[in-house]
Amino acid sequence: MISRRLILPAAILLVLSAACAGEKPAAPTAAAGASKVRLGFSAWPGWFPWQVAEEQGLFAKNGIDVELKYFDSYTDSLNALATGNIDANSQTLNDTLASAAGGAKETVVLVNDNSTGNDQIIARDGIKSLADLKGGTVAAEQGTVDHYLLLLALRKAGLTEADVTFQPLPTDAAAAAFVAGRVDAVGVFAPFTTTALKRPGSTTIASSADFPGAIPDHLVVSRDMIGRDAKSVQALVTTWFDTLAWIGQNRQKAMEIMARRAGVSVAEYQTYDKGTTIFTLEQNRAAFADDLPARAEQISDFLLSSKLVDTAPSLEGLLEPRFVQAVQP
């Protein structure tokens, strides 16, 4: 997704003389006896830096043994964390709240980014606004972030989900159905926006840029992991900021790694620039102190009123700022 417009100033240079000579430096190994952490992520530009961290040995540099698991289906990653099949996952705040409403014990420990345009409602030729969508069919992944975006956009336009025919499909299948002409519009996130916009005449009629701060993306860990292995949680958070510093110093190489993981060209990946704002350490600390508590309450109320959840999620233990506070700038 990304040019790092708000990336951390590089504090640590990891370019070794071998790399300057075109050779790949040997990756460091995790400390003997380090516990293995199962970390999930899926197709979103704000989470692809985890691929960089793995390929550049940055987890091991911080003494943590990570089993990085990529999920083709974002929903599967949510379910994996909620059921204890992974220890940590990158996911949105609203999806974390939805899991909490279902009884999952999860905690946000890091803000990866805010979606600032890379979540989109894309419509076929002839539909130029949300009002034009009335009576049409819209596909999105039910109960997840772009379903949420659809409801926000419809509400802003004076409509409800009852004014459209909603077709629940996994995000990749939703994009494919739209391109094939089987639905009138689709709610998708990058890189699936690239797929959807290949339909001739298609256009974006709403995006997360219209709702600043509505879709924050996070590293979320199980409550159990914090209790049994807070040291590894700290290592994950520290590795994230080391990774941003490495990307800032090795942009071209990083772009190649992330574009490859996304399944798009580097040029296509660069188009995701404005749509994702990566949070610096300072922005993380400010978000935990000011914005996130209020944002969590706001999203919780919306999920309940829109019937995306049956009961209000508990916000107790949802946000834990101590790990970003402990990172050395």
Helices and strands in order:
Elements (H helix, E strand, L loop, with lengths): L16 H4 L15 E7 L6 H7 L2 H4 L3 E7 L2 H9 L5 E5 H9 L4 E10 L3 E5 L13 E4 L4 H12 L8 E4 L2 H9 L5 E5 L2 H5 L6 E5 L8 E7 H6 L1 H20 L1 H12 L3 H5 L5 E3 L2 H25 L16 H4 L4
Parallel strand pairs: 1-2, 1-3, 6-7, 6-8
Antiparallel strand pairs: 3-10, 4-10, 4-11, 5-8, 5-9
Helix pairs in contact: 2-10, 2-11, 5-13, 10-11
InterPro entries: ABC_SsuA_sub-bd, TAT_signal
Pfam family, one: NMT1_2
Subcellular location: Periplasm
At a glance:
The chain is α/β, with parallel strands linked by helices. It has helices spanning 17-20, 49-55, 58-61, 74-82, 93-101, 145-156, 171-179, 192-196, 223-228, 230-249, 251-262, 266-270, 281-305, 322-325, and strands at 36-42, 65-71, 88-92, 106-115, 119-123, 137-140, 165-168, 185-189, 203-207, 216-222, 276-278. Helix content is 40%, strand content 19%.
Provide structural commentary:
This protein is of the alpha/beta class and about 325 residues long. The protein has two domains: about 15-115 and about 215-325, Periplasmic binding protein-like II (D-Maltodextrin-Binding Protein, domain 2), CATH 3.40.190; about 120-210, D-Maltodextrin-Binding Protein, domain 2 (3-Layer(aba) Sandwich). Helix content is about 40%, strand content about 20%. The protein is built from 14 helices and eleven strands. The chain has helices at about 15-20, 50-55, 60, 75-80, 95-100, 145-155, 170-180, 190-195, 225-230, 230-250, 250-260, 265-270, 280-305, 320-325; strands at about 35-40, 65-70, 90, 105-115, 120-125, 135-140, 165-170, 185-190, 205, 215-220, 275-280. The strands form two sheets. A six-stranded mixed sheet has the order 2-1-3-10-4-11, with helices on both faces. A five-stranded mixed sheet has the order 7-6-8-5-9, sandwiched between helices. Strand 6, helix 6 and strand 7 (about 165-170) form a beta-alpha-beta unit. Helix 2 (about 50-55) packs across helix 10, helix 5 (about 95-100) crosses helix 13 and helix 10 (about 230-250) packs across helix 11.
